[in-house]
């Protein structure tokens, strides 16, 4: 005998959690970013260079770039003594490209000493250099706040105290 069995398939339950809704919304934004950026000249080539097993297409690579912020690994203050021309070296990386690194220096009392953009070091693409333009008579205890940004405008932040250790990331 041939018997046919019919069962009712229940549709999957839709989650109402805010975390899941936020995640879905973020992926939609990432996909929209990828579609738009890949239409810009040279961007398909940039993202195509990142194709691998995890990112099988330029679109997937662009989505991944949107979803992942850059990382600031360290802020080196050894060459900073508070003099004009002293340098801060910042190591910042991203799966694709860090597009800018900005620095804010506040003295030990919290007053703004200076702020500005760091410049990419030519021989090491993950190193950015900020050259001081304002004298800081008491650099020890000063706070150096660094923000790194990538192409989709994701930000990473880190703060160090001169003569101290990393405060936040």
Please tell me what the overall shape is. Answer: elongated
Distance between the termini: 69 Å
Helix-strand makeup class: alpha+beta
In terms of DSSP E residues, the strand content is: 25-35%
**C-alpha Rg, in Å?**
23 Å
Q: How are the strands ordered across the major sheet?
A: 4-3-7-8-9
Order of H and E elements: HHHEEEEEEEEE
Largest sheet: 5 strands, antiparallel
Strand element count: 9
What portion of residues is helical? 10-25%
Helical stretch count? 3
Question: What do these coordinates show?
Answer:
α1 (18-37) packs across α3 (58-67). The chain contains 3 helices and 9 strands; from the N terminus they run αααβββββββββ. A 5-stranded antiparallel sheet has the order 4-3-7-8-9, with no helix packed on it. Strands 1-2-6-5 form a 4-stranded antiparallel sheet, with no helix packed on it. By secondary structure, it is α+β, with helices and mostly antiparallel strands. Helix content is 21%, strand content 31%. The mean pLDDT is 90.
């Amino acid at each position: 005998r041939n018997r046919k069995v019919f069962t009712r398939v229940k549709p999957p339950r839709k989650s109402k959690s805010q975390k899941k809704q936020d995640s879905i919304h973020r992926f939609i934004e990432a996909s929209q970013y990828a579609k738009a950026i890949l239409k810009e000249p040279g961007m398909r080539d940039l993202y195509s260079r990142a194709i691998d097993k995890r990112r099988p297409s330029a679109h997937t690579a662009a989505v991944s770039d949107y979803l992942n912020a850059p990382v600031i690994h360290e802020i080196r203050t050894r060459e900073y003594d508070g003099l004009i021309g002293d340098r801060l070296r910042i190591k910042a990386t991203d799966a694709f490209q860090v597009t800018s690194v900005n620095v804010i220096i506040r003295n030990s009392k919290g007053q703004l000493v200076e702020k500005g953009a760091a410049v990419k070091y030519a021989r090491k693409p993950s190193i950015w250099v900020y050259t001081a333009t304002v004298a800081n008579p008491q650099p020890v205890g000063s706070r150096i706040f660094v923000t790194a940004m990538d192409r989709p405008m994701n930000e990473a932040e880190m703060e160090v105290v001169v003569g101290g250790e990393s405060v936040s990331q």
